[in-house]
Amino acid sequence: MNLVAILLLGIGLSLDTFAVSLTLGFVSERTTRREKVRFLIVIGLFHFLMILAGWLFGANVSRLIADYDHWIAFFLLAFLGAKMIREGLSAVQDDEVDCDLLSLRNTLMFGIALSIDALITGFSLGLVKVHLYDGSPLGNILLAAALIGTAAFSISATGILIGKHVSSKLGSKAEIFGGAILILIGLKVLYDHLL
């Protein structure tokens, strides 16, 4: 697998992350810059670590979670989406509602839900030769994981910026819309894995 393939893989793994980041951009005014940066770091780091874990633990980890990884992602995204809708409905009635969507606990839940596919991808990378430079297999996987983590970070940052711009047009309904998107992403993950 060469550099172009790894970059395309990174983009593919980041599409759900982009959609979630877009919804987080909708509530950008109710989250701090620090929370957004923490979210981006967690997303990039979890993608990096899951690629490595999948590669290191290979078939054993893949077999253990393959039967229910989609359920984990679904429940985490549905929980966060419902929370976002509830907070959005509360915000319509009360502008002073506190938003903890990007609390450390929720950010870690996003990190897990959005990087489970990277774990299985890491296993797949163990089955093919990753050749990004003339170095050891571990060095090539570390570089591939870093590129995929960087792609997840960058694409998520872009999603937050676009969501912030769009939220100015949606007004107070942006958080409700964003929560619905999270639930739909969870349902899509479930649908893709069950059919």
Describe this structure in words.
The protein is an all-alpha fold. It has seven helices and no strands. The model has no long low-confidence stretch (mean pLDDT 85).
- Largest sheet composition: none
Which oligomeric state applies? single chain
- Helical proportion? over 70%
Indicate the structural class: mainly alpha
Count the DSSP helices: 7
How would the global form be characterised? globular
Strand elements, count: 0
Order of helices and strands: HHHHHHH
Features:
195 residues, mainly alpha
What is this entry, summarized?
The protein has helices at residues 3-13, 15-26, 33-66, 69-93, 104-127, 137-170, 174-194. It is mainly alpha-helical and 195 residues long. The two termini are 28 Å apart.
Provide the fold topology.
Blueprint: H1 3-13, H2 15-26, H3 33-66, H4 69-93, H5 104-127, H6 137-170, H7 174-194
Helix pairs in contact: 1-6, 2-6, 2-7, 3-5, 3-6, 4-5, 4-7
